[in-house]
Amino acid sequence: MDELKLRVPFNTKISFLITILAVILFCFFVPNTKPKVRKISADVVTRAVELPQQMQQLKEPPPPPKPQMPVAAATDAEVEASTIDRTNFDGFEKAPVAPQAETAIPFSAVEVKPVVKYKVDLEYPDLARKAEIEGTVVVDFIIDTLGNVENIKVIKSVHELLDAAAVKTVRQWKFTVARQRDKAVRVEMQQPVRFSLNQ
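and the corresponding structure tokens:
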């Protein structure tokens, strides 16, 4: 057994040298192979087409004139003499002012408050249910003069899945028209939307 232990380092060195020698011989005697490149030739067909008479009579437009190179002025008086006159805008009309949207009145300040007349059931997102995410999302929105919901914003977020579901649901609601001094008005309102796993 001791003799075997003494021979292992020697045998390892010999096998290592034989392997290196085999790799060197392989590199020398194996021919250097190069990949064959195939040349693909394509026949080019040129076809002459005669232009219609109208196009043959067209002439190329002359090239635009080259811009003049600026020349440095000798004195300040020369610069002042060549300054462009002030532009007169008196003949132009002013741009029309864009109509401003009516500002929304806060819900608490309206005389006749809007009431939900059509409500869509809340859809709990499957991924949120599987992840056991629950909570209350608070959305802020405007009820227009026709009772439609617009400009929905999440002001208290729970998770992006629940936020998106709350916005999608509230966007489909319809309200009665809010009135102020017997006139239909836009109303800003906030609504909590509760997501509970026990629903």
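(Above: one complete record from the training split.) The first strand starts at residue 105 and ends at 106.
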